[in-house]
Every structure is written in C-alpha cells, then in structure tokens.
Design brief:
The protein is an alpha+beta fold and 169 residues long. α3 links the parallel β5 and β6. Helix content is 21%, strand content 33%. The structure holds coenzyme A.
Length: 169
C-alpha cells in the first residue's frame, strides 16, 4: 500500500470514500469546501491502484496564547472504504501522513476522535497541553500530538477549527 498526496484525479474517489465511510455527504462536502485553502493537506492510501483511504488536515487557530507562526493542523476527516477497514490501512495512512505534515513544517496536530484509537500514534489528551476544544465534547476525545518536542510550550487556549466545520454535527 502506498500513501501519497492527493492528485486532481483523486477528487471523486475521495468523495466516495468519505460518503461510504461516514454514511452521509457532510464530510465529503467539507473536504470539497476546504480543498485548496491555504495550509490544508490531503493524502490518500492506494491499494493495488485503487484509492481506498483518505485523510485531510486543515489549519486551526488557538484563541488564547500561541506564537503566530506556529503551524498547528487539525486532522479531519479520516476515512477508509468500509470493505478495507480493520486491515491497518487507516493506521498506515495516519502514521505516514503525520510524518509528511512534520516534513512540511507543521509543529502539532489536534484530533477530535476516539480516545482508544489515536494514542497509538502518540496523541495525548489536549488538556495536558493546556488546550481545549471549542466544541462541547468530552475532554478525552480531544487530543494533540506535538511533531516537534515542546512545540506547544508557549501555547494555551481554545482550539478553533475553520468555520466550515461548524456545519458538521
Ligand atoms: C477510523 C478509520 C479511518 C480507521 O481505519 P482502519 O483502516 O479501519 O484502521 P486500522 O485497520 O488501522 O485500525 C483499526 C482499529 O481502529 C479501531 N477503530 C476503527 N474505527 C473505530 C471507531 N469508529 N471507533 C473506535 N475504534 C475504531 C478498531 O477498533 C481497530 O482497533 P484494533 O486494531 O485495536 O482492533 C475507519 O474505520 C473509518 O473510515 N471509519 C469511519 C469514519 C470515521 O469514523 N472516521 C474517524 C472520525 S474522523
């Protein structure tokens, strides 16, 4: 399996993966809206020539205190085609895309998701890094990964996703 940056010809496959994995259009629409926005990153997992997984990253702001030039990305959404789930594709996609984010200058990544899944990639509770989520969610569901040691040392506050996320339930 290969993980690579999204190409223009992947757009429809990415839509289909998100709709199939989430069982609705919202995440696919969100990706279509955010694609091309500055500092967003999009990666696909390719198995035998077929795009079977997708992960998207978009910049978040920290309302509070944080150096302006510190690039922090939010990982969302991530999706693997239902027939290909639980084979390690999601893990490889997330792991390799995080390495690429780091290589491209991102210092930390936040994720809103299942607390049993993301710690395997090094994510810890965002609360431990003095960050909270703007949405009313359980603390443990909001996690952060520093891609550089102590990258968030001078940050404290509320993490704000781009306004396009407000339409997701
Ligand atoms: C989440 C997702 C991307 C993982 O992809 P995957 O290829 O199945 O992941 P992997 O095979 O690497 O890992 C499977 C692990 O993820 C866990 N997992 C998968 N979906 C999960 C979920 N919704 N809740 C909790 N754990 C989940 C499984 O328990 C499994 O853990 P295990 O290895 O301890 O058994 C995929 O299941 C998916 O597309 N789900 C629907 C969309 C979604 O909920 N995305 C995440 C929110 S943005």
């Amino acid at each position: 399996m290969e993980v690579r940056a999204e190409k223009p010809e992947d757009v429809e496959a990415i839509r289909q993966i998100n709709m199939a994995a989430f069982g609705r259009e919202d995440e696919a629409n969100l990706v279509d809206q955010l694609r091309g926005v500055s500092s967003t990153l999009s990666f696909v997992a390719v198995e035998s020539g077929h795009v079977v997984g997708h992960v998207f990253f978009s910049p978040v702001a920290i309302a509070g205190k944080c150096p302006d030039n510190l690039l922090v990305l939010g990982l969302a959404p991530v999706a693997v085609l239902p027939g290909y789930q639980r084979q390690g594709i999601g893990a490889l996609l997330i792991q390799q895309s995080l390495e690429e984010c780091s290589r491209l200058g991102c210092k930390a990544v936040v994720v809103l998701g299942h607390p049993e899944y993301y710690p395997r990639f090094g994510f810890i509770s965002a609360k431990e890094k003095r960050l909270k989520c703007e949405y009313p969610i359980p603390n443990e569901a909001f996690m952060v990964l520093e891609l550089e040691p102590d990258a968030l040392e001078n940050c404290v506050g509320t993490v704000k996703y781009r306004s396009e996320f407000d339409q997701l339930e």
